[in-house]
Amino acid sequence: MKKKILLYFLLSSFTLLSSIAEGASIYNPTLSIYPYAPITEPDPIYAELGGDFATSGYVIDGAPLVTITDYNIGIDFNSSSPPPDLFVLTVLTPFSVNADIGLLSAGVYNVNANFYVDGILEQAVTNSFTVSSVPIPAGAWLFGSGLLGLVGIAKRKKQHNISPQLFLQGRIHPTTLAG
Questions:
Q1: Are residues 113 and 49 in contact, defined by beta-carbon separation less than 8 angstroms?
Q2: pLDDT, tens digit (0-9, with 9 covering 90-100), for 20-35
Q3: pTM assigned to the model
Q4: Integer angstrom CA distances of residue 158 from 23, 124, 151, 164, 177
Q5: For the stretch 106-115, what's the b/e string if a residue is b when 16 or more beta carbons lie within 10 angstroms of its beta carbon?
Q6: Distances in Å between the alpha carbon of 48 and those of 57, 77, 96?
Q7: For residues 161 and 3, what is the distance between their CA atoms, to the nearest angstrom?
Q8: Which of 20, 30, 73, 143 has its CA 20 to 30 A from that of 126?
Q9: For 61-78, what is each residue's pLDDT tens digit?
Q10: CB neighbours of 31 closer than 8 A, spacing ≥ 6?
Q11: Spatial contact of 24 and 88, defined as CB atoms under 8 Å apart
């Protein structure tokens, strides 16, 4: 009887352990977008993908593949599981990898990051962010209008052929400058 109980216990333990071993390979997947808001058009943008592998020995298969269609960004992260002889249970191994997105025009973007292990989709994470256009600062508008004003005054002086000295001496009234 003890042998039967021990046999059932070993068989159920083996079944439980094998189902755990075949479970999820990636835990706590994260997707972060950099730089943090506010993001503007001239900012180079990248995503950081991270999480924990179920055990050590997983291999990241190159840089993540980034595809951009309109305002949707897809990022595919590929990895390979360790060989069975390297599989260690209950060890979470953190990972982090960057994906270059590049420069984007103004708009709201949706990002879908897919985490693949051995070609099988394990996890998916979504995020969104806004890229705003770079406004021209108020100082630039003020400088431009002042410059245009100076050009206009110089043009009027040239048209009327009035000497600045006569104007400053008070011999010419300012109303004669009016067009």
A1: yes
A2: 445 678 999 999 999 9
A3: 0.64
A4: 85, 70, 11, 11, 11
A5: eeebebbbbb
A6: 21, 11, 7
A7: 119
A8: 20
A9: 999 999 999 999 999 999
A10: 47, 48, 49, 75, 111, 113, 125, 126, 127
A11: no
